[in-house]
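Section 4.2 – Deliverable D4.2 (structural model, holo form)

The reporting period included a commitment to supply a predicted holo structure for the target in complex with fe (ii) ion. Inputs used:
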Amino acid sequence: MGKTGVILMNMGGPDSLEAVQPFLYNLFSDHDIIQIPRLIQKPVAYLISKVRAKKTMDYYRVMGGKSPQKEQTLDQADKLQRALGDRFKVVVALRYWHPFTEEALDKLFEEEIDKILLLPLYPQYSRTTTGSSFNEFYRRFKKRGKDIPVVEIRSYHDHPLFIKAWVESIKEHIPDYKDHYFLFSAHSLPEKIIKQGDPYKDQVEETVKLIMEYFPDQPHSISYQSKVGPVKWLEPMTEDMIVKLAEEGIKKLAVIPVAFVSEHSETLYELDIEYGKLAEEKGIESYRRVPTLRSHPLFIEALKDIVEKHA
Ligand SMILES: C=CC1=C(C)c2cc3[nH]c(cc4nc(cc5[nH]c(cc1n2)c(C)c5CCC(=O)O)C(CCC(=O)O)=C4C)c(C)c3C=C
Ligand SMILES: [Fe+2]
Ligand SMILES: [Fe+2]
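Output (structure tokens):
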């Protein structure tokens, strides 16, 4: 009997400054994340990536020259593999930088596999993230000509252990959390995508509602970060919210990146550096950011439970 393969899926990030432009090219070439007319998508992606790379490289320079997402995802895979044991084989497929889906499949098929589970490291489903990783998987998998059943885990935004992991992590990192206002910050999305039926916003709200059941009476709100380009994205924007809260007299703010499970430019640069500075300028005295879940034991337990229930 073969093993059950588990493919952990994430976005990936540049692992050097030289990788920033090709990483951005891969991202803007993806029709699932950005709808540029197909005929011109690749040349336009090339132009945008060339222009944007300069600014994006500045973020990564400040972060030590790379995104830590790959290391953190590999660590999650390692811990999950140990938790699941030998009947499973866990591999990592990143969408826009190494290890790509093709590399993940090579590694997976070094052994006999009789079932595949697709496990995104995006707790809330969006067709721009999870949907894109699934589509990339099927394109590559089809070419292998293997007749193996595939199970999609679309989201786990409401999984009790995922919620518990956030609750414990908030308490661990901000022991005086009761004095802080909770600002849940999630990656934004173009509003058009939500109007077309993407469940992302509803699922983010559900995650927050379930976390807040453990913190009755704690003042809190949700905002969205990291808008790209000129179209309308989900609001309120995190930076506007920080200014508004400061103006309302909030002095202690805890920012909780509820849609991310590893660190990258959006947390280490945008939340910590950019918005940290903004908060200070606006008079916030305690600006604290809860780390992403990474390999928090309860998060690994959550992933293990999700895999076992789908296996
Ligand atoms: C162009 C449109 C984009 C959409 C739609 C989008 C959705 C989306 N993204 C994440 C998570 C991450 N995005 C990251 C980087 C990043 N994202 C975009 C564009 C869109 N994202 C760009 C251009 C970039 C590169 C950085 C920049 O130039 O600003 C990252 C960080 C990667 C890393 O540093 O390792 C993450 C994580 C989600 C969850 C999401 C929709 C729900
Ligand atoms: Fe993004
Ligand atoms: Fe950003």
